[in-house]
Amino acid sequence: MTGRIKVARVLSFLCLTLFAGVGTAFAKPLKVYILAGQSNMQGSAHQSTFAAIGDDPATAPLLKVILDERGNPVVSTNAWVACHTNRGGSGITLMGKVKVGYGFDENRIGPEFGFGIYLDQALEEPVLIIKTAWGGKSLAVDFRPPGAGPYRPSERETKNGNLPKKEEVGHYYREMIQFVKETLKDSGSIKKVVPGYQEETGYELAGFVWFQGWNDMCNRHHIEQYTDNMIHFITDVRKEFKSPQLPFIVGILGVYGPDPDRRKFDKGLPVTDFRKAQFAAVKNYDDRVAPEFRGKVIAVDSGPFYDLPLSDIYWKRRMTGEWKRRVKDGRMTTGDYREECENFGFGDGELTADEDRMWKRCASNAEYHYLGSGKTFVRFGKALAESMLELEKK
Question: How far apart are CA 290 and CA 388, in angstroms?
Fold first, then answer.
């Protein structure tokens, strides 16, 4: 009998503790953040690259934040995700606590992981991240906001007849808005994602993060209109959610680092011009919109988090691999191969032991996906969260 009483008391204590924790967690409104964009918002970083974060003394402390005592990626305590994206060519909706698995597949992350884990630690309030991201989408066409008006094709597009269908223009903008509204429709829809949500406490739409750009960067016509389109996008999103002062972050494309013109490889892409168009949208926003929409729009550059040494290895592998194929099928001589390797400083064309080790530990995707580097995605996600919290204070 005594044993039963002790067990009952322990269970009673655990229940009280559990409910006390839930009550504390939802003593304040649920903070809702919207994350949207294309493939780099989806996220390519495989969890197998997390361990490499510890190789750099400057980033090693992050491992204590993103890994548990057993070395496994953490699951958030008080932050949740509702994610609408594509996998295998089909639409998919994912819901649950912030963890690995909201990226390209169940083993990958996007910026939401570092963003959510950091906010979970920094805030007393519970957090809901609503993420919509689809690869290969432009702001000029796919995410085109209503305020930008109909798509205006270039002379070349008109001449070639390569025009987007009317229903394609703005399709993903509308889908993004619809998913956010459906998620926040009522208490029941929110509880599907956040089981402990309390209607009487409510929620607060706390911020928006946009991270996109590759498809517009690859099209000069799109670059020319990007600044205007981004200004319309921010204004229209704020109107849609009746939140004219909604904190808004534009994540700046940083695939080639903060100074793309100094890169040794793939210099033909107009990355610098596109980055200027993105920064200009943030700089000019307040001058172009009505007074009620001014303020609380900032840029956060992903360039400083791009792993340039890892990129050099990527290009060495890619370029020497192509040259080897040419030698094999007779399109290139071995002498030409050695000369090209010498011109680019590739040695004999084979990865050194250190390069091979770094590639295998740090990379899990291609250059335009930030090499699938966990070190990049975790740090950038954390930077977005830190910037968002500072922006909310203004």
Answer: 23
The CATH class given to the 27-307+373-393 domain equals alpha beta
Helix intervals (H) in 105-246: 111-122, 155-160, 171-183, 187-191, 214-217, 220-240
Residues 6 or more apart from 91 whose CB is under 8 A from it? 84, 85
Rounded to whole angstroms, the maximal C-alpha distance in the chain is 89
DSSP result, 288-326:
HS-GGG-S-EEEEESGGGS-HHHHHHHHHHHHHHHHHHH
- The length of the chain is 394
pLDDT along the chain (394 residues), means of 10: 43 38 66 98 98 97 96 97 94 98 98 98 96 98 98 92 93 98 98 95 97 97 98 98 97 95 86 98 97 96 97 96 97 97 96 98 97 98 98 90
- Quick one: which H or E segment has residue 82? strand 79-87
Q: Find, among 343, 309, 307, 305, the residue nearest to 323 by Cα.
A: 343
Which amino acid is residue 89, in one-letter code?
Answer: G
Q: What is the pLDDT of residue 25?
A: 53
Residue with tokens 């009952």, as numbered in its chain: 8
Tell me which long-range contacts 89-95 makes (C-beta under 8 A, separation of at least 24).
93/179, 95/192, 95/193
φ, ψ for residue 43, nearest 5 deg: 110, 125
Q: pTM of the prediction?
A: 0.92
Residue 224 and residue 221: Cα distance in Å, rounded? Answer: 5
Give the pLDDT confidence score for residue 73 in this predicted structure.
98
pLDDT tens digits, residue range 268-315?
899 999 999 999 999 999 999 999 999 999 999 999 999 999 999 999
Q: Which residues pair with 207 in a beta bridge?
A: 33
Calculate the average pLDDT of the chain. Answer: 93
CATH 3.40.50.1110 residue ranges for the chain: 27-307+373-393
> Nearest CA to 196 among 82, 14, 24, 26?
26
Q: How far apart are CA 260 and CA 187, in angstroms?
A: 46
- Beta strand 127-133 with 30-37 is parallel
